[in-house]
Amino acid sequence: MLPVLDQTDTPLLAAMNHYVTDGVVPFHTPGHKQGKGMHPRLGEIIGRDALALDLALMAELDDLHEAHGCIKDAQDLAAQLYGAEYSFFVVNGTTGGIYAMILTIAGPGDKIIVPRNAHRSIIGGIILSGAIPVFIHPEVDNELGLAMGVTPQTVEEAIRKHPDAKGVLIINPTYYGVATDLKTIVDIIHKANMVALVDEAHGPHLMFGDGLPVQALDAGADMCAQSTHKIIGAMTQCSLLHCRADRISVPRLKAMLQLVQSTSPNYILLASLDVARMQMATEGRSLVNKAIALSNKVRDEINRIPGLYCFGEEKIGNPGVYSLDPTKITVTVKGLGLKGAEVERILRHDYKVQVELSDMYNVLFLITLGDGEEEARIMVDALRDMAVKYGGKNDFTIINDVYSQIEYPEMPEQVLSPRQALYGQTRMVPFTESAGKICAEIITFYPPGIPLLCPGERISGDVIEYCRKLQDAGLHISGPEDYLLQTVKVVE
Ligand SMILES: Cc1ncc(COP(=O)(O)O)c(C=O)c1O
Fold first, then answer.
1. Residues lining ligand 1, judged by CB closer than 6 Å?
2. At what angle do helices 70-82 and 267-302 cross, to 10 degrees?
3. pTM
4. What's the CA-to-centroid distance between 95 and ligand 1, angstroms?
């Protein structure tokens, strides 16, 4: 047990600052030598001193891959704050953290249970490990055209059918702030002696806000990866990977983190993780609660604008919706007859407002510790003005009709692992003639953004027919090399 650490400390930043102010003459990487060799064109934009702290691993600055000095101290502080046994700094995003989590528990041929709407980093981890995915379906909200969480019943059923799986990976909360009943799910996973992994890319702030969904570690998860850069103060690419040790091998996790990360991690990124942790420890509660209050106010105002809808607590209790993070502002714009992508363009070009993402029915805004009343006012004013000035002619009833009229096809048979499919000999064949062949790519339609085919799966006549009907209804296709889906890539 570590003693209680001083969360106001930033040991890594302090060590870096000491090194730079000590007047050392650097005969080491990086070659720009603390910015002295930087071309002025870059310096004029990012500031002449911006690279002064861009340092390299050395005795006094520790080594991310064998941390025993200031990086270990910084990681220990993060572990103590979040309630982990071990925390690791990751500098290639939650993507890197998810790769390492999957590689830690699954090797070639091992099964891992994952949601069908897995982020590409999960599919990437499965490809790298050679594991076999057992896909489970998230719930779908047809009004929003969005995937929600997976239910405990769905997880239980998958575990019953695949008792040999090594673990279950849950995405919680979703990009849109929807959380499932994670505690119950983790208990189910542990009862089956499996490992519970959580893609918590959108949840590094959960423990600091009142009434937010429970964070993965508090729900009992064995490992979770959080995009510290997405929601709180760290720089882009920075994530935290937390774990508790009873069900996983920590040395193996460390080995996997080495495998997926550079031997030359960027120290400015690492320092930003150190400081982001300190900021949350010292001010996190007030900062996150302020963002929640602002979001609630914004949500109310948006819901008074004719044609717009911003979902909130009324969705709690629906399948896959156990709790919500209100700082994710999903504005459903289909009431204006506009697609989300159209609204994204209007907001960017007419109002200089950029959303996080758009999909068929929605645009998503993130409210974080970086926002205040002024930003909120600009956003609501832009939406109000846009809703009066613009209206579209999209007829979304066609989409509702197609989904109510056709039956969802059976989950395809997994014939090869995604990795075997990736490395197999592939060729393009006409999609309508591909029944019985093994798919070598991901094919997804929006809404709701859940893949219909993944690499290594056998294409059935039912799936072809289903895709054709969605295509005829004008749904957006994502994933295949031939985006019109006239042809599909298959394994020879
Ligand atoms: C659900 C989910 N998981 C994982 C990731 C990957 O995170 P990162 O961009 O930090 O690598 C993302 C990124 O958008 C995501 O939305």
1. 93-95, 119, 121, 171, 175, 199, 201, 227, 239
2. 30
3. 0.96
4. 6
